[in-house]
Amino acid sequence: MTSEREYETNTHKGWGDLSGLCRIGGIAALLLIVYSLGMMVQIVILGGQPTSAAEAFSLLQNHRAVALLRLDLPTVAVMPLYYLLFLGLFAALRRSDYSNAVLSTALAFAGVTLVLATPTALSMVPLSEKFAAATTDAMRAQLLAAERR
Description:
The protein has 149 residues and is mostly helical. 75% of the residues lie in helices and 0% in strands. It has helices spanning 4-10, 19-46, 53-62, 64-70, 73-78, 81-93, 98-117, 124-133, 137-147. The relative contact order is 0.13.
């Protein structure tokens, strides 16, 4: 009969000590909290996302830095921190329920990857330049429709 302590040390021997991952996950969580607070301040000061494609194109032409901030470019920059956060959660929870920890970490990684794969504010920059250079209303309408996809 093995004691609980021996069971814990023998379970998942190949993983070793993952306390470093827990620490990295905690740091990522703190950075995400700071980012969230910063985004709240930014929304109050600069406003939220533009309500229409025409407004976004106009903002990109006149105030590119403000437009990229309002179009959530910083979100794309900090999204990889979620990988570290969920790795830290896995390291912390793997001993209590290994299969659920693996499943939830895999699903979180898939979700973060899907968010990162979506078009970002940077994909709107060339569209806004084409919109500004468009000479007919038909071309402008076509570019506005392309942005809504």
